[in-house]
Amino acid sequence: MIFTEARFLVFFLVAFVVHWALPTNRTRKLWLLGLSYLFYGAWDWRFLSLILFSTLLDYGIGLALERSESSTRRRWLLTASLIGNLGLLGFFKYYNFFVQSGSALLSWLGLPAHDLTLQIILPVGISFYTFQTLSYTIDIYRRKMASAPSLLDFAVFVGFFPQLVAGPIVRASHFLPQLVEKRLWSRVEVRSCLTLFLIGFIKKAVVSDNVAPITDQVFGDPDSYTALSNWVALFLWHVQIYCDFSGYSDMAIATAGLLGYHLPLNFDFPYFSRNIGEFWQRWHISLSTWFRDYLYISLGGSRGSGWKAMWTGTITMMLCGLWHGAGWQYVGFGVLMSSAIILSRLWSHFVPDGSAPRRAVTWLGPLLMNYFLFINWIVFRAVGWEECMEMFRIFFFLDAGGADTISTLWMLVFVAFAIVHTAFFLGILQKWIERSSDWVYAGSFGFLCATVLVFMATEYQPFIYFQF
Amino acid sequence: MNAAPSNPYSPAERAGPLGVLGRLAVFSMGFALALALYHSWAVPGGGGLVGAKQEHFARARGRYDTVVLGTSHFYRSFVPEEFDRAAAEGGLSSSSFNFGIQLPNLIELDYLFHRVLEQGGEGLQRVFVQYYELTPQIDPNQAFIERNVYWHDWARTRLAAGFALAADRSPGGLRYLEPSRGKYSALGVLQRWAPAGWRVAIEHYQHFLTRALLIGRGRAVARGLLGRESGLTAGVAQGRGYLSLEEENQRLLARGLDENSYQRRRQHFLENRDAYQRSLEALRTEEVHFGDEEWMLADLQRFAGLEVYQGMARAARERGVELIVVVMPANSCSRVLEARLAVELGVPVLRFNDPDRYPDLYDPDLRFDSGHLSDEGARLFSRLLAQRYLETREGSQ
């Protein structure tokens, strides 16, 4: 079940009405938990066992950590949580990747290699909920928070359906306190939530899903297309990846908001960033801050020599890349990102503030940043190394072998996106929405809802980040 | 397109129940207004060839007095000029159009039949409809594609849902075809408890809603608004709805699609002529053989199908248009039903699925594959159809 399906709207309508009709906080949480498991089970009920395992393991470890004073015992408990969660993730997501990479290495060394790969289905959302539960045990280990007040609260935190399968990665310290008190309908910002949901819906169902068949076509076989078509596809992918993922986050935040819960902002106009470092502060914020707080800082962060900090940053970005998928291109994506951050820091360090080159680069920042993202997207999106190299050749040298084309009219999607996105960035549309009366808002919202239904893509396109 | 505005209203300013209802009413009005506009702009549904044929037929209102409607068998077997020429030789002036489409549902044909009656203008005199079986369930792996949605107006939805529910009540019931994905879905497990007919009926109503709300029809709306005709529509106009399998195959081969389905079927036919001959023998001797699908009760299928044709006959009579049912020269038949059709419907039923009477139509050299005629075979069939029709007219007069 995805947010743009009709059955989700029915599901949510029932969830919403019953949730606010229930008299006590406890019954509401029980209701939410049941709904969340049904929502997840709609993909594959067998994988509910993984969520239950993760929930019970980390709830138990959280309690034990809180009660234990012995640092050795606490370390062991944390290790058990890490092994449990990362073990799940490692097996379901990375087992075949490591086995295949190992086999390739053995073959390269001339040693016999056996095929030990398994037919493993990647459980939806495993990368998200394992990171959530890990943050919980690490925070308790660091004595930054107390354990969850009850197993029910913790289970709702892990399984809360709006953010269960594709984030934002919510911290226990942010969400658990919200479960203690009964949510009040009077505090729900209905208009904001409805608007945000519709914006997310448009991003996903109208923009991303309509563009997806085109990008799939070109990225699948770039050499069959002209250089212009490859460039158009790249522009479209730039729009698609943002609309797909931030669209999901918008809808997640909005649905949680309508149930009275607050989820953190996950995207803050990342394409307006002036450099890659800033981009990661605005793109998938809940993931980048997770890696910063639980990996980068644990590895030493910016402490120590410059080289050590660079190394730590590179390791963090490589793992962040690998989090996106079990493939070397994702590691490459992380390395490229890390290199850009290092270059940007070196530039700031060596080129004096206020100098002409510095001013020029600052002024051109968003343009350069987006150009660099294009290069990264090629690595990220290419279906294999061969296609990746083909696309690089086409991208840099306009050297395309194919004659197939996609209509350049598709660039209108990019232009329209750029205009609307900029209008939101400048706050123009928000002002209009805020100032309009309820009646104008209701009529416009109705008109827009019908328009969205008409222009949405009907072919089922799972969210890109589901595979992560 | 990122952050939503903050709510400018404090809880104290929240609307009361009447205010909420009022806002919902305004929301509904905005919604309905948009839908009404888009409905008025959208070009006919169905997509691809089906949409193109509807679009051309609507634009050519009054140009055709004869329409043939049916499956790919009719689409690939009816050459309008050939029919008109043979009819003219027999003293009947006609201007015909081929409304054959690939893999239709019988209820889809019923929908198109009614559209033809509506849009045919005063000049429309006769509609040849191919005899075809009813399939109550839409292929679950093709659900919600435009082709399966567009014919779900209220009348056709009720008809389809009614047949599905009736199937549940019949002995043996209906076997539900599960989609290939969602095997382990918890919702799928819950749905499997429901009777198959109910599930199928609900799906038809979902298709109705999808059609009514114009979900995913943005391109059709944009095309209607811009008044742009698709290349396919122009092609339909050129051939008056007919395109031979040879030509279609050649076009695909020219595009480098050597392994296209037409080519594969042609190869298979050429390599398995013995099997084709055996199926002809079976056709000669076997009394009742009803298609390939065994999951639907054949008796019910026939009964329900008959009801659809009865509805068509009624509508044609009311409109003053002649309906002629045609049994195509295919490799399956139901002799009992075919005999009953003419009696029940009160309209001419022209049977061509008789290898003894029409040996040429079953000649492998006049076939593209086991089910479809070649261009030469199609020309022969069109002439035969005109002759048979003229005989029927003379007989009735």
| Number of structural domains of chain B | 1
Sequence of secondary-structure elements of chain A: HHHHHHHHHHHHHHHHHHH
Arithmetic mean of pLDDT of chain B: 84
By DSSP (H or I, 4+ residues per run), the number of helices of chain B equals 17
Radius of gyration based on Cα positions of chain A? 23 Å
Key phrases:
heterodimer, A: 468 residues, mainly alpha, 2 domains, 71% helix, globular, B: 397 residues, alpha/beta, 5-stranded parallel sheet
What does this entry look like structurally?
The complex is a heterodimer of chains A (468) and B (397). With 468 residues, chain A is mainly alpha-helical. Chain A has two domains: 6-183, no CATH class; 190-455, no CATH class. Chain A is 71% helix and 0% strand. Chain A is built from 19 helices and no strands. Chain A has helices at residues 6-21, 25-41, 48-67, 71-108, 126-141, 151-159, 161-164, 172-180, 190-220, 227-258, 276-282, 285-296, 306-323, 328-350, 356-381, 385-397, 411-425, 428-435, 438-455. In chain A, helix 4 runs antiparallel to helix 5, helix 12 packs across helix 13 and helix 14 (328-350) packs antiparallel against helix 15 (356-381). The radius of gyration of chain A is 23 Å and the shape is globular. The two termini of chain A are 17 Å apart. The model of chain A has no long low-confidence stretch (mean pLDDT 88). In chain B, helix 1 (17-41) packs across helix 10. Chain B contains 17 helices and seven strands. Chain B is globular, with a radius of gyration of 24 Å. The longest helix of chain B has 25 residues, at 17-41. In chain B, the strands form two sheets. Chain B has a five-stranded parallel sheet with strand order 2-1-3-5-7, sandwiched between helices. In chain B, strands 4-6 form a two-stranded antiparallel sheet. Chain B has one domain. Chain B is an alpha/beta fold. At the A-B interface, helix 9, helix 10, helix 17, helix 18 and helix 19 of A face helix 1, helix 8 and helix 9 of B.
